[in-house]
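Quick one, tokens below:
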């Protein structure tokens, strides 16, 4: 473990911080956990992990986040990809670009496209898969420290987005307290693949379903995930499905843009019947959204466009909208129906 204090040059408004290069998982975890215990808080950000840094450095530059110590975990031995039978085990420090070109991923459409349709080639070369699933919201009000109303930054202060520009915000798992969207494409594919994360924390290791990793904004806008202080994602476990799959991303421009809506579908049709179906929705949820209502409508039923329409309508039935997001439920319904049709090749 090596460390040095850093003073950002020319930015007297940015707090000095200490940079620590971690040599092993256990000591990196202890450093973050012990800081949290000392300050008796559950989700510390005074000492924090950093790997690719594509989210954290933005937040620091914007003046939204000022950690006292960054623990760089990019040199930890977490950059391997292993395949055993029907399971892909991906180190958390694997970059998005490296995962996308792995032989087991190039033919897994939903995973490959969720990676290649995200960000830019430069960012995909820097960003790690562990950091991607834990990325913070892109809400412009959250990322502007001059905005005083933001329950995610300052609990109890309100939400500027509800009456502001909200085109890219969420309609599921939200209420008037926070409508921030979870921006990861990869995490949407992971929930449709029933993926899990392995972690190393102060109480040892555990495995968490990706559907249980994030916290909905309508439950606690100030908390992004269910990890405890010092808990580090070490690997992703991704089951390789015996099914067809696909990822459809709808956005305002063709590249380097977040989703307005997206749908990750994994499905297998046997004798015209949906024997397996799993769906993730992106661009619409405060968490990577597992479309369980739609799946209940579809599972075991004869595949048809009418059934797809019914399933999509059921999933969006309780959408919470503000003027800026009023178009989203209909767009999300159409996105899901289109992707169900494409993956199953059912057209009538
Ligand atoms: Fe803050 Fe959430 Fe409102 Fe954005 S949507 S301003 S993150 S409370």
């Amino acid at each position: 473990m090596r460390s040095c204090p850093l003073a950002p040059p020319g930015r007297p408004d940015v707090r000095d911080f200490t940079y620590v290069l971690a040599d092993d998982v256990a000591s990196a975890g202890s450093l973050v956990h012990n800081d949290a215990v000392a300050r008796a808080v559950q989700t510390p950000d005074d000492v924090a992990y950093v790997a690719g840094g594509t989210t954290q450095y933005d937040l620091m530059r914007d003046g939204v986040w000022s950690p006292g110590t960054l623990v760089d975990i990019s040199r930890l031995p977490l950059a391997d990809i292993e395949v055993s039978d029907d399971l892909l085990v991906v180190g958390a420090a694997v970059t998005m670009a490296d995962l996308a070109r792995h032989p087991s991923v190039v033919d897994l459409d939903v995973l490959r496209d969720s990676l290649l349709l995200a960000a830019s080639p430069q960012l995909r070369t820097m960003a790690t898969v562990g950091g991607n699933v834990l990325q913070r919201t892109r809400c412009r009000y959250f990322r502007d420290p001059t905005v005083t109303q933001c329950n995610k930054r300052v609990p109890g202060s309100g939400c500027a987005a509800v009456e502001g520009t909200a085109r890219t915000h969420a309609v599921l798992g939200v209420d008037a307290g926070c409508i921030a969207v979870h921006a990861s494409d990869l995490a949407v594919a992971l929930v449709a693949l029933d993926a899990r994360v392995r972690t190393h924390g102060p109480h040892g290791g555990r495995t968490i379903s990706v559907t249980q990793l994030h916290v909905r904004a309508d439950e606690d806008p100030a908390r992004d995930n269910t990890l405890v202080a010092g808990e580090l994602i070490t690997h992703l476990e991704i089951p390789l499905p015996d099914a067809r799959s696909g990822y459809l991303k709808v956005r305002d421009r063709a590249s380097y843009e977040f989703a307005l809506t997206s749908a990750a579908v994994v499905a297998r049709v046997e004798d015209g019947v949906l024997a397996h179906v799993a769906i993730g929705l992106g661009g619409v949820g405060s968490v990577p959204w597992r479309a369980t209502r739609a799946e209940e409508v579809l599972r075991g039923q004869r595949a048809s466009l009418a059934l797809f329409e019914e399933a999509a309508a059921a999933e969006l039935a309780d959408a919470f909208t503000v003027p800026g997001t009023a178009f989203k439920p209909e767009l999300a319904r159409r996105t899901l129906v289109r992707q169900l049709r494409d993956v199953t090749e059912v057209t009538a």
